[in-house]
Amino acid sequence: MSTQDDLRELFQRILPQRAGAIALLLAPGHPQPVWRDENGHLRAALTLVYFDAADSDTPRDVREQEVYLGDEREHPPARLRAYLEGNLRAIPAILAAHGDDADTLLPCDLFAYADLLADDALEHADEFAAALGDPARLAAMNEAAGEAAWRDELAALGLAEHAAEVRALARPALRLHLDPDEEDDDSTCPMGQTRLGGEPDLPPSCAWPEVDGVLLTFVAQFDLAELVGRPAAGELPAHGLLSFFYAPIPPDGVRGHPVRVLHFTDLDELARRPVPAGVEKLRAHAIDLEDEVHFPSLASDFFYESLLPFERVLACHRGRRQGTGEELVPSGPLAYFIAGAERINEPERPFHRLLGHPAAIQGDPYLDIEIAARPQGWDGWEDGTEEALKIHLQALRWRLLLQIDAVEQDGLLLNQDGGFFYFWIPADALARHDWTQARGELQCH
To answer: Where would one find coiled-coil regions in this protein (predicted)?
Structure first.
């Protein structure tokens, strides 16, 4: 019997294998599910099926792929077969080891352990299966494979030697999904409830928030105790109510959009406050929270450039100004990297988020807020200079507190032209919970 015939019988005998709501099986419709390709490599047509639940037979996703199995010219056929049999028998353990990340797997990811063939202590299928069923060894192999893949991705960006620094750019966030209340009157909403719009909950002693005599619009409030345990909430206080107010139109002579961020620690003091006459009242929305992980967007590519030597970055920016500069971090591979590295379930607008990195309409939001914080604004700005580069570096100090998309349910949510409103705070002020340092900025079309 040829090797491919032997392996075909092996795969047909052992598959399907299932762990919880995920199963691996031979891809249907292939007359030769295991074959040798034109290069002499052994391949199999495999399918991962994701079911609605562990006890369900209703598929919710199907991923089919031709998987490389090995080359018997590199390993004795009997040893290669023993490894593949052990691999097949260990599929439930491999799926379980991936945990929450199992939803991102492809069939090939379950056969990424060929390094075991270099271990002379492993000879029989039982030994390979035991090695792949050892949680500690499997975790170490998955971590090493992930790190190698990570470095390969960063190599395309010229950042392979900065793997740890790039990983540190990831920030946890909370995606805000808004549901309109059944009634326009939000007087029945529980006191201190997390929500956007409506009437805020304020202590009776607290005057309506204003800046330079301009009364601000209530945007959102968050019950901080509800956020405890969320990855993003580690930078916020563990209790109280965090409330956000903004000026839709900046007052005359005021740079940027004034904001107030208030933290109330005694929830028993709160009372529903009617919106003053002349102040816009946003429609009340309940907020459902979802954990996400963001990397700096393509518009904020300076985060990635800043990992490289200052002089090299300066030379590149000077070259760009003269029309001869190259991309330090290529935008095409960077966009691909960000899309694959972020953990975002719904990549479409609206983008309402608490913490994380901002989405952008045009230009770098970090540079925008840094420029807005300068007394002279953009006056004197000269791209490609050492001073401009230092301003770029200074801009990395800002942290996004809250981003509200103007768009919700095919209509305008905020008084802005289809863009994003950002509440910002310097990183050191966020660490101190000094909300007086919050600032607002707008990007729109």
So the answer is: none
User: Cβ distance 241 to 298 under 8 Å?
Assistant: no
The rounded distance, in Å, linking the Cα atoms of 157 and 155 is 5
pLDDT digits (tens, 9 = 90+) for 199-253: 999 999 999 999 888 899 999 999 999 999 999 999 999 999 999 999 988 777 6
Question: Are the beta carbons of 106 and 63 closer than 8 angstroms?
Answer: yes
Task: List the one residue out of 78, 91, 96 whose CA is nearest residue 135.
Answer: 96
- The upper half-sphere exposure of residue 180, i.e. CA atoms within 13 Å in the direction of its Cβ, equals 10
Residue 426: is the preceding peptide bond cis (ω within 30°)? no
Non-local CB neighbours of 245 within 8 Å, separated by 6+ positions: 200, 209, 216, 217, 218, 219, 259, 260, 261, 262
Q: What CA–CA distance (Å, rounded) separates 245 from 268?
A: 21
CATH number of the domain that residue 417 is part of: 2.30.320.10
168 and 81 inside one domain: no
Where does a domain end: 107, 132, 155? 155
Global pTM reads 0.79
Tell me the residue range of the domain where 203 lies: 158-445
Per residue in 22-32, pLDDT (tens digit) is 999 999 988 88
> Are the beta carbons of 15 and 26 closer than 8 angstroms?
yes
